[in-house]
Design a protein that fits this description.
The chain is mainly beta. It has a single domain, classed as q2cbj1_9rhob like domain (Jelly Rolls), CATH 2.60.120. The protein is 9% helix and 34% strand. The strands form 4 sheets. The protein has a 4-stranded antiparallel beta sheet. Strands 2-10-5-8 form a 4-stranded antiparallel beta sheet, with no helix packed on it. It has a two-stranded antiparallel sheet with strand order 3-12. The mean pLDDT is 94. Bound molecules: 2-oxoglutaric acid. The site of 2-oxoglutaric acid has 10 residues, from strand 4, strand 10 and strand 11.
Length: 161
């Protein structure tokens, strides 16, 4: 799937033709679960320079608003990197509970619902989150992180598990 031409064509439009897959994650939200992801940016956890990393979030099931699709703060990738902290909680889908310290806790942002087979793209500095799945179906997303080949790892990578 990471080589799918429809995905790569869209990624190429943003980061150019010399593309590497850096990382991939399955984000599984069970049916009727309060599982959530705090507001965060990806860049503080990927230790890449420059910040040109792009994630294709490919829906493998319906990711509607009710199913807890991604929410984003449009344009926030241009605001720099915010201070993050760790607040591990059992329902946080990111085990260390990484997130932006309280700043956007009461903000709803813009929902990005995607149907099965559709995807969204997000920049590594875009502030994003997701809320509960109130539907009777699993919400399953495959997040593929792409970088241009000139982007390099910097510093130690902290495991999220
Ligand atoms: O799947 C989610 O709800 C969150 C995904 C996410 O944070 C990411 O792809 O960086």
């Amino acid at each position: 799937m990471v080589h799918h031409p429809r995905i790569l064509d869209a990624v190429e439009d943003v980061i150019g033709p010399d593309i590497l897959v850096y990382h991939s994650t399955l984000f599984l939200k069970e049916a009727n679960t309060p599982a959530y992801v705090r507001w965060h940016q990806d860049s503080p956890y990927f230790y890449l320079s420059p910040h040109l990393h792009l994630t294709a979030w490919v829906a493998l099931s319906d990711a509607s608003i009710a199913a807890g699709c991604m929410q984003v703060l449009p344009g926030s990738h241009q605001l720099g990197v915010f201070q993050h902290d760790d607040k591990p909680e059992s329902m946080n889908m990111i085990r260390r509970g990484q997130g932006i310290s309280d700043r956007f806790d009461n903000v709803q942002g813009t929902f990005i619902p995607v149907g099965p087979g559709q995807m969204s793209l997000h920049h590594t500095d875009l502030v994003h989150a997701s809320g509960a799945n109130t539907t009777h179906d699993r919400r399953l997303g495959f997040a593929i992180s792409y970088i241009p080949a000139h982007v390099k790892p910097v510093g130690a990578v902290k495991p999220s598990a």
